[in-house]
Design a protein that fits this description.
The chain is α/β, with parallel strands linked by helices and 268 residues long. It has 2 domains: 108 residues, 3-Layer(aba) Sandwich (Cobalt-precorrin-4 Transmethylase, domain 1), CATH 3.40.1010.10; 151 residues, Tetrapyrrole methylase, C-terminal domain (Methyltransferase, Cobalt-precorrin-4 Transmethylase, Domain 2, 2-Layer Sandwich). Helices cover 36% and strands 19% of the residues.
């Protein structure tokens, strides 16, 4: 049996009760943290809190060499866990399909996602979001500035009146030869600055920091304004709104201190 468990967004307490029970009952527990991180707890702290041993797998150990996970799941009760939800905005559907192809039963215990938390914190309606995009560090995609696909994704959504959730790059230590020695998390101000340089400085955007934690920060401003601010520790995300319903506009003014003129330009 292979059970995919979402750990939620912040620390060892963010997991659901069902996820906690599956974790504690498993014969072996695997985890990855290259797609996201719990910023309020390390995996060792999660393991200690739930009385389990967690075996960490890097990207290659999940995507190119999943055999240790699959072999264990053929005979044992195995949990594979990730921050957030195990199958949203990650690559782990492939692992589930490999398990099913080998006759291994699979089950999913969902966790709170960044997408759900961002919509809730900003007051932007979930069904009015279009396709999400991911903004990488320039060194990670081998060119300067913002990839064309990111700008095109935002503009396509805005043409349809839809909001865009911009996931911000995470680079684990040693994951890229061109990257830093330690873990690196793109910040909302860095992301806004990249979009100012390569797109539009006056566009309304919303920075969200530490969604799911005890001190989330939500700030709306133009991209130029956000680029000049600091939002504290990770994780961060950025939202570029499309057309704003009256309730959404009120939410951004009230909950995110959005400039009235910037909101008025998007209100429909």
């Amino acid at each position: 049996m292979l059970t995919f468990v979402g750990l939620g967004l912040y620390d060892e307490r963010s997991i659901t009760v069902e996820g906690r029970d599956r974790l504690r009952e498993a014969d072996r527990v695997f985890a990855e943290t290259y797609t996201s991180r719990l910023v309020g707890a390390t995996l060792d702290e999660v393991a200690d809190a739930h009385g389990v041993e967690i075996e960490t797998r890097d990207r290659a150990g999940v995507e190119r060499d999943p055999e240790p996970i699959l072999a264990a799941a053929e005979s044992d009760d195995v949990v594979f866990c990730t921050p957030g939800d195990p199958l949203i905005a990650t690559t782990h559907t492939d692992l589930r399909l490999r398990a099913e192809d080998r006759g291994i039963d699979t089950h999913v215990v969902h966790g709170v996602t960044a997408a759900a938390a961002v919509a809730s914190l900003t007051g932007l309606q979930n069904y009015r979001f279009g396709r999400s995009v991911t903004l990488p560090f320039p060194y990670a995609h081998g060119a300067d500035g913002v990839p064309d696909s990111v700008v095109e994704g935002i503009e396509d959504n805005r043409e349809r009146g839809l909001h865009t959730l911009v996931f911000l790059d995470i680079k684990a230590a040693g994951s890229s030869p061109a990257g830093p020695d330690g873990d690196q998390f793109m910040t909302a101000d860095t992301a806004a600055g990249l979009l100012v340089d390569d797109w539009n400085a006056d566009t309304l955007a919303v920075a969200v920091a530490r969604a799911g934690g005890p001190d989330p920060v939500v700030v709306a401003d133009t991209l130029a304004g956000l680029a000049d601010r600091e939002f504290g520790p990770p994780l961060h995300a950025l939202v570029v709104p499309g057309d704003l319903h009256a309730v959404e506009a009120d939410a951004l003014r009230t909950l995110a201190d959005a400039p009235a003129d910037a909101v008025a330009r998007r209100e429909r």
